[in-house]
DNA sequence: CCTTTAAGTTGTACTATACAACCAGACCTC
DNA sequence: GAGGTCTGGTTGTATAGTACAACTTAAAGG
């Protein structure tokens, strides 16, 4: 028989355990792209390009952090800067072809890893789990 | 109608978003104890003391990392070292009273935050969500 | 115009982390 | 029981990610 407090306790414990491992797990899965870099590239792809400031606001990162992350991604030829037509101060960031390729590769790896990990879940459970995660994250505010 | 791939995709996306925010969220929730320190203290409480090597093995951290974390926690008077009775090389780490108090405080804060966040979930959903997280984490291997 | 605001970069500092070198105590084998 | 090896732990060094503050340049608004 379910007990509210026990369930909350378990959720807390398991999410904490997950959080602790997540970055190193990501690093193992795709050494060439940290979790943050991956996220930034994915966002650029999703939006079809945006400004550094937008990334900073969206992910609650300092603009200096984003500036350096982008500089690193540019050095790797994964991102390029284009002048913003209406604001000479700003740059619009876009994936390069290489960036798109790397992102696709990493995305495919991640997808495969998750699929395998969830291979023996039945469809109804997957659907409910996805729903719970959405609901949980939605209550976090506009952090993502 | 649930679609397997769509659910996996959602799970992946939402877990990634969660992982990205987790550390800074923890830092906001309890600035005095990082997620890792919190975990180490909790483990010490749970086990009633253990060696640094055990912590490193359990959390897949390098022993040097644990050594420095423990040194910091000792400086804060949250952890103390006791000679290991049967091995002069080793030290058994224990919470100090202050460490136990801080851990209790942080645990209470976290619990309250999770409770509030999950306040409008009904008991059956909490129970299922907890079960799914357990199942998901269990498939990760003995990382925790 | 001149002041204020916004976009980005750079200097500096801190934390978490790993790997390698090392030390000291324990253990094993002959 | 002496020497070689293994184990627990610390320290040196390096890297990544992050923040805050100072600065530059351009836009916006009185």
Alpha plus pi helix count of chain A: 6
Distance between the termini of chain A: 35 Å
Low-confidence stretches of chain A: none
Oligomer: homodimer
The fraction of residues in strands of chain A falls at: 5-15%
Could you tell me the number of beta strands of chain A? Answer: 2
* Spatial sequence of strands, sheet with the most strands of chain A: 1-2
Mean pLDDT of chain A: 92
The computed structural class of chain A is mainly alpha
Helical coverage of chain A, percent range? 55-70%
Largest interface: A-B, 55 and 55 residues
What's the shape of chain A?
elongated
Please provide the ordered H/E string of secondary-structure elements of chain A: HHHHEEHH
- Radius of gyration of chain A (CA) equals 18 Å
Main β sheet profile of chain A: 2 strands, antiparallel
Structure description:
Two copies of one chain form a homodimer. Chain A is mostly helical. Chain A is built from six helices and two strands; from the N terminus they run ααααββαα. Chain A has a two-stranded antiparallel sheet. The first copy, chain A, is elongated, with a radius of gyration of 18 Å. At the A-B interface, α1, α2, α5 and α6 of A face α1, α2, α5 and α6 of B. The structure holds a DNA duplex (30 and 30 nucleotides).
Helix and strand topology:
The structure is a homodimer of 144-residue chains.
Chain A: H1 4-29, H2 35-47, H3 52-59, H4 63-75, E1 79-83, E2 91-95, H5 97-117, H6 123-138
Antiparallel strand pairs in A: 1-2
Chain A binds a DNA duplex (30 and 30 nucleotides) through residues 24, 34, 36, 51-53, 61-69, 71-72, 84, 87-91.
